[in-house]
Amino acid sequence: MKALIIGAGIGGLSTAAALKQVGIDCEVFEAVEEIKPVGAAISIWPNGVKCLSRLGMGDIPRDFGGQMRYMAYQDYQRGETMTRFSLAPLVERVGERPCPVARACLQQQMLEHWGHDAVQFGKRVERVEQHEDGVTAWFADGSQASGDFLIAADGSRSVIRPAVLGYSPERRYAGYVNWNGLVAIDESIAPADQWTTWVGEGKRVSLMPVADGRFYFFFDVPLPAGLEQDRTSARADLTRYFAGWAPQVQHLIAAIDTQTINRIEIHDVEPFGRLVNGRIALLGDAAHNTTPDIGQGGCAAMEDAVVLGNAFSAQNTIEATLRDYEAQRCDRVRDLVLKARKRCDITHGKDMALTQAWYEELRQESGERIIAGLCDTIQGGPLG
Q: Which residues fall in a coiled-coil region (predicted)?
């Protein structure tokens, strides 16, 4: 049996590893000539760490994940602590720690695990067609490939998605812009073992530790889409948007490298009622494009891969196996997309009365409520 996997990102490479474990040959095709990370880092929560371990890549979060032991929210103007608590109860309850990882490290290590030479780069898919005993994909370079089934892990702008859904869904602008990057850890800004977030005015500034003495940083600002801004104006833009914020935030803005900062307008896509059509299945961002507000986008793709591999281990027909995958994932990924959307709206001031109420709740927060919410999300995954 042979699978065609379109996309060599987190979802595609996780899928290749999962299918290899159950004896399925895979050909992996990637549109670009060289994979460049979209975003500086990724939050791999314990459900994602468990999935990577199941897929034989547990060393990646262990070796490249930051030591994030505490979580804190800070007042945006004075910089005072609104709440701070240990993440040890989370680790104890779910059996694994969260591991923020630089995307470049994660993707490079996943490529090395699968085999960089085993990925066919520069293969931009143009169309796919399924027939009685398989699927064929045609690429922009004039080549084609055939297999018994096809996994579309080709991202949020998936070319293959319409072949499954029968239509091309619109991406929904979430209402805010995110700047992100990596910066050397400076404990005068925030502790090296803490996820620190300043909140106010419907905006957010956040730091997470990753490996090699670096923080992953991101700034969120509610803005209209389509502004003429890029990394060349990033420092001036952030200085303007965060005028009057705490001294630590000003120090962070001064420390960023504007040559490497990313600026992203955040979108999601309405959850789908199906993920499979015959021998073609959607996976990762192609299946559930979410905002990053609960840090589950990459983890959900890893979960997809684990579920898909488990489904194929049952040795049913291909069509039945893919339907089983769909049945196990549809509700889960819909829940994640909608949870992230709800959190996005509260964090970014869609209704400022609700956002102000959240700020007041944070000042009374012991950590129990936030950890309970994290546990609920994490333990909803296939590995508990």
A: none
